[in-house]
Structures are given as C-alpha cells and as structure tokens.
Amino acid sequence: MLSTPPSQAPSPLILVVEDEPGIASILAAYLQRDGLRAQHAADGLEGLRLFRQLRPDLVLLDIHLPGMDGLDLLREIRSHAQTPVIMVTAVADDVDKLLGLRMGADDYVVKPFSPPEVVARVRAVLRRVQPQAAAAPRAAPSIRVGRIEIDQEAHAALVHGDDGQAVALPLTLTEFRLLACLAAQPRRCFSRSHLIDHCLPESDALDRVIDSHLSKLRRKLQQAGQGDLIETVRGIGYRFWPGGGPGAAGSGG
Questions:
Q1: Quick check: is 168 in a domain?
Q2: How far is 199 from 239, CA to CA, in rounded Å?
Q3: Is 136 a member of any domain?
Q4: Nearest C-alpha neighbor of 188 from the set 222, 139, 145
Q5: Domain for residue 92, yes or no?
Q6: Mean pLDDT of all residues in the chain?
Q7: Which residues, at least 6 apart from 133, have a Cβ–Cβ distance to it below 8 Å?
Q8: Long-range contacts made by residues 193-196, C-beta under 8 angstroms, separation at least 24?
Q9: What is the pLDDT of residues 112-148, one digit of tens each?
Q10: Measured between alpha carbons, how far apart are the two ends of the chain, in Å?
Q11: Host domain of residue 153
Q12: pLDDT tens for residues 152-185?
C-alpha cells in the first residue's frame, strides 16, 4: 500500500488502480504533494476490494489490468455508486475512451501523460463533486420542469409520479450537470462547445463525448417514463423540450 501523509482534516482519498508500480508511485507522489491522499491497487480485483473497503472520493482506473480489467471494474463500481472515475489508457484510439465514458466514467487520460496534468484533472472532477462554499453561500435553486425536479443542493434528479412519489434518477456527475444546464432554460438550444465548457470544465473532451453522455442521459430519462425530453438540433446542439420536442429540428447525433 502507498502511505499517505497525516493531515489536520481528511483530504480527498484517491484510489489508484494501476498494475505498473512505477506509474502508480509517481501518481501517488504527485497526488500527495498536492495535498490529496492516495491508495494503490495493483489489479482489478484488489481495486474492487479497496473500493468497497475505503469508499474513495475518486478512482484513477487503468483500463488494461490483470484479474479484472478496468472496464469491468468501472461497471461494478457504477452498479453500486456514483464515485467519480477517471480512466487511464495506453491506447490513443477513441474507442476505449468512449466506451468508458458511455459506461459512466467522468474523464480520461492517455499514457504517456504528464503527472501534473493528471492531478489537475483529478482536482477539476473533485471540484465538480465537492464544490467549495462561497464566502457568502447561497442555496442553489431547485429546477422543476414537468415531472422532473433537479435539486442542485442535494445533487439529485427526481421524477415525480401521479401517486406523489418521487424516484431518483441514477445519474453520473456529468449527466446531472448536463440535465441541470439544459433544464434550467427549457427550449433554449445549447451548442456542444457550450455544454463542454459548462459541464466538463478543464477537460479536453470532444463533441462526440458530449453526444455519448447525452445518449446515456436520454436513455435513463426514457426508462423513467419521460420520453424524449432532450432534442437534438442538427448542426447546432441540444435543447430540453418539456412535453416532447416539435420534431422540426430532427433527431440523431
């Protein structure tokens, strides 16, 4: 195990699941130098055990691992928790990246990488999960559109039924941010670049990454009986259209 320096208050814990000891040691050293705690798992099965035991604040997860590969471990994590996950891959091909993102990863980095860049990505994702209170904190308003309620303080998206009961949507961090951004201004069309800037800050995500996140968000809304609330506007981007879009703008990626 990689040791962590003592601190007055617990700092975020990062679980590094990486089978190359040299890379794991470098990542842990840079994370600790930035004031974060780090634990190391050398394979997927150990990663799953430590994830369940430690409940880390974020997972840095290599895709190619012995025992259980990173995508299988990501699938297992997502079946129980919405803990932020940054995928690490040695393959520059977009296929691995997009597959991880479709399964719920929050970001990715490609080897060889700059350790300070990885730390910056970790900090960016943690800021989205654990936003710092402002000097004069003000409660973020809830958004209610039709049956959808987005509680920004509780970071929960709910679907209200006819019986008055509410069911929580199992959204990842990025999916929640996209839904909140779109639903805050119904019928406004947002470009892909705007959504990347506001929902994946400090990420070098491509347009197709936003398409992947929104496709998964649409599917979860449909599974909750909410139809096609998110409409694709060809050549421009996306908009949230309560009650279903007019259909004039078309559909598809």
A1: yes
A2: 15
A3: no
A4: 145
A5: yes
A6: 80
A7: none
A8: 194/237, 195/237, 195/238
A9: 888 898 999 899 888 887 654 333 345 556 888 888 8
A10: 44
A11: 143-240
A12: 777 788 888 877 778 888 988 888 889 999 988 8
